[in-house]
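Below is a filled-in request sheet from our internal design queue. Each sheet records the structural input a requester submitted and the sequence that came back. We keep these sheets so that new team members can see what a complete request looks like end to end.

REQUESTER: design group, bay 2
PRIORITY: normal
MODE: inverse folding
CHAIN LENGTH: 181
BACKBONE (tokenized):
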């Protein structure tokens, strides 16, 4: 009798890992086992203000774009606690990162590399625009590579919009975008 091998698709691995990652991040966030992001109170405060649940006016020295984005999400999911909603959104940025990384490389080893990267375990437990900025920079890179191969204008436009939005969310992304020129 033949032994049947169980074949697990990479997409199934990504989905299972993503769900586990979301749960671990939410648990770590509430247990505060990792160092919080320094400016997360400003991002949370501006998000609450834009969602209409803030008790003070926004006084943030950082870009308000990420706070505005989170505020709109908080309005939509107002039935959930706001910190839980923000943590789920932050985890979703990480999931989008790994899906895009896998799409670019088509290599399962990238999953292991990504699992142990600092952005997953240090930045994911806080509230920071670095997570969406990292996704947008990676999307810009992927779109620019696609444009160089296919010369489709939509790839160039997507790359440009991704670079601009990443810089709007997180200022230092402007420095990283210099490498795209």
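RETURNED SEQUENCE:
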């Amino acid at each position: 009798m033949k032994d049947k091998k169980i074949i697990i698709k990479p997409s199934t691995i990504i989905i299972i890992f993503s769900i586990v990652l979301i749960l671990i991040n939410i648990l770590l966030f509430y247990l505060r086992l990792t160092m919080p992001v320094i400016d997360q109170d400003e991002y949370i405060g501006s998000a609450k203000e834009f969602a209409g649940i803030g008790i003070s006016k926004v006084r943030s020295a950082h870009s308000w774009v990420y706070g505005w984005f989170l505020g709109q999400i908080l309005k939509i999911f107002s039935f959930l606690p706001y910190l839980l909603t923000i943590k789920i959104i932050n985890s979703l940025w990480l999931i989008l990162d790994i899906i895009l990384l896998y799409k670019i490389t088509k290599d399962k080893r990238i999953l292991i590399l990504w699992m142990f990267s600092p952005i997953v375990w240090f930045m994911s437990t806080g509230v920071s625009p670095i997570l969406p900025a990292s996704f947008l920079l990676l999307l810009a890179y992927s779109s620019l590579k696609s444009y160089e191969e296919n010369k489709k204008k939509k790839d160039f436009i997507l790359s440009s919009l991704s670079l601009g939005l990443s810089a709007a969310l997180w200022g230092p992304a402007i420095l990283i975008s210099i490498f795209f020129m």
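SHEET NOTES:
- The mean pLDDT is 81.
- The chain is about 70% helix and 0% strand.
FILED BY: M.R.
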